[in-house]
């Protein structure tokens, strides 16, 4: 029987483990936390991420939990529209999902051929020779025909296999929250919560999860927002961070102030935005009858500005599952993971370039540079966002 070890039980690891298990692999899923936990906020899935989930056989679950983003424009802090709100075709519309709902759908799709081990901190990987690849956690070793490193930005597996790729700060910090409908501001009644506002080093994005008065398409309805600000993470307690956010975004167009006022400290999730520079030279490392592959943030951690992190992880999972579906350990499996590398590295590099261009727009500093940026923002931003959206939408699952 073909065997696989998946390191990391985030959304990319869960999607990959489930896909392999459903196609006949015996899978061991390793998670360093004491239990497999969902995230507390939400995320946006663009058409490429949705196609990837459907290719993985998880489309039915997505239909039950996703809320279409609908019309969404881009404004400046003074309220001027950079991109006017306009309807989005149904086949191109992104959806918003609560991470807990998505986690439940991924858990439901794991299947029976899977063993979950929690509290396992992987610290090394073994490749080379004719032996099967393996990861170690202290004195424990987990060997398999295929090892999938889905252990996130701080991947221990990648650190060993691709030491040239370093984790660096992107120069900004993000705060996220989901406000349940019973606390959502009354000013949102009769108007969409969605939209994006771009300032000098600051950004605010909001989206609805379902409809007020019911769970809607999401079993955990409310309003999801993300605030991004240039600079390092704040060391203060969440209540103080929330006070700072309200100060930084004071005077921005509604409903931003109302959303921040309705947010409670326990809702707030702060995260330093980090990325890999440079990207790994390879996402596949042959060993024995198979090898090791990098997936998700372990392969291409990037800033969240284009909302493609989760989508690319699901693309990775769908591509890998298709590549190894019929591959037997030996030459066929080694060629399959080499094919995965050829497919994924150019795609990831393209999306990282697009994201870094958006980072440069968001983090412009200096008085003269800001004046030039603001003068050109109305032309730069729509073109950049349109190009990024087209690049993301072009992906199709492997046949």
Automatic annotation (TrEMBL):
UniProt xrefs under InterPro entries: FAD-bd (IPR002938), FAD-dep_Monooxygenase_BioMet (IPR050493), FAD/NAD-bd_sf (IPR036188)
Keywords: Monooxygenase, Oxidoreductase
Keyword set includes Membrane: no
GO MF assignments: monooxygenase activity
Pfam families, per database record: FAD_binding_3 (PF01494)
Domain FAD-binding positions: 4-162, 259-355
SUPFAM superfamilies per the UniProt record, alphabetical: FAD/NAD(P)-binding domain
Stated name of the protein: Monooxygenase
């Amino acid at each position: 029987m073909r065997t696989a070890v998946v390191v990391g039980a985030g959304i990319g690891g869960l999607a990959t483990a489930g896909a392999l298990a459903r196609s006949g692999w015996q899978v061991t899923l390793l998670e360093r936390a004491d239990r497999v936990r969902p995230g507390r906020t939400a995320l946006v899935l663009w058409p490429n991420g949705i196609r990837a989930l459907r290719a993985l056989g998880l489309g039915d679950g997505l239909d039950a939990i996703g809320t279409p983003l609908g019309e969404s424009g881009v404004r400046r802090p003074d309220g001027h529209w950079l991109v006017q709100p306009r309807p989005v075709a149904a086949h191109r519309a992104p959806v918003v999902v609560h991470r807990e709902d998505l986690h439940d759908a991924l858990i439901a799709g794991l299947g029976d051929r899977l063993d979950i081990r929690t509290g396992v901190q992987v610290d090394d990987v073994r490749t080379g020779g004719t032996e099967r690849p393996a990861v170690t956690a202290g004195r424990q070793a987990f060997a398999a025909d295929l090892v999938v490193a889905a252990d996130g930005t701080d991947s221990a597996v990648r650190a060993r296999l691709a030491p040239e790729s370093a984790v660096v700060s992107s120069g900004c910090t993000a705060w996220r929250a989901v406000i349940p409908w019973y606390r959502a501001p009354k000013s949102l009644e009769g108007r969409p919560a969605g939209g994006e506002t771009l300032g000098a080093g600051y950004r605010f994005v909001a989206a609805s999860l379902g409809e007020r008065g019911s769970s809607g398409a999401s079993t955990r309805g409310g309003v999801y927002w993300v605030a991004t600000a240039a600079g390092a993470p704040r060391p203060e307690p969440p209540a103080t961070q929330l006070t700072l956010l309200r100060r930084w975004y004071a005077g921005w167009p509604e409903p931003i102030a109302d959303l921040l006022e309705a947010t409670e400290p326990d809702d707030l999730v702060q995260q330093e935005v980090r990325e890999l520079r440079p990207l790994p030279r390879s996402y596949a490392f042959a060993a024995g009858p198979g090898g090791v592959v990098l997936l998700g943030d372990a392969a291409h951690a990037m800033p969240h500005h284009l909302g493609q992190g989760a989508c690319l992880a699901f693309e990775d999972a769908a591509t890998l599952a298709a590549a190894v579906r019929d591959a037997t350990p030996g030459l066929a499996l080694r060629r399959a993971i080499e094919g995965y590398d050829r497919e994924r590295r150019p795609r990831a590099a393209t999306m990282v370039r697009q994201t870094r261009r958006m980072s440069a727009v968001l983090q412009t500093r200096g008085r003269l540079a800001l004046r030039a940026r603001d003068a050109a923002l109305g032309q730069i931003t729509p073109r950049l966002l349109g190009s990024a959206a087209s690049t993301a939408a072009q992906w199709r699952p492997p046949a």
